[in-house]
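Incident log entry.

Two folding requests arrived from the same account within the same minute. Monitoring flagged them as a possible duplicate submission, but the sequences differ. Recording both here for audit purposes.

Request one:
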Amino acid sequence: EVQLVESGGGLVQPGGPLRLSCAASGFTVSDSYMRWLRQAPGKGLEWLSGILRDGSTQYADSVKGRFTISRDNAKNTVYLQLNSLKTDDTAMYYCAKGSQRGQGTQVTVSS
């Protein structure tokens, strides 16, 4: 059974960093295309970043240069490092494999 469990969200001041984690089970992240998505209040789901099986990475223009996706194959975990956070980054963040995603972790950027 595929399971994705996100963690690491919280309240952070503008300009601050956070690191989100996505612990996977039931499959191997290094054999999969993994994505990070987010959904802000009242808005649709937004794709942020992806990491391919060969380790290459992709980013939406809205987060390029501020967010970094990575994975730890030994821990079967995918990460999203969020830097230079803005209030507009406030959202529920999800990791996803195909059509499946976890329960999400809330990121709130506020002073």
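Request two (distinct sequence, not a duplicate):
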Amino acid sequence: VQLVESGGGLVQPGGSLKLSCVASGFTFSTAPMSWFRQAPGKEYEFVATITGSGGLPHYTDSVKGRFVNSKDYAKNTLYLQMNNLLPEDTAVYYCKYENTWGQGTQVTVSS
């Protein structure tokens, strides 16, 4: 099982980023997957999850209405579209499947 994230970067408040997580080694089409993040000096925080079929996404309250979690089955890729980013969204973002985590991608929101 392997998860490889990309798409992080530096963005101004109010901007957007789209994170990608390319998955391999398991049946992506039926796998529930999640995003977590860790801000400097803080614990890991759940961000979003999506069922194997891609339905019923669930989000932590602080990102509802701003983030969208989706799957591209043709590319075995999980996405996290992040809009209207806030400084408090600054963190390393990780995708997760069962006990496997990706390497993380840094998102920094700053003017």
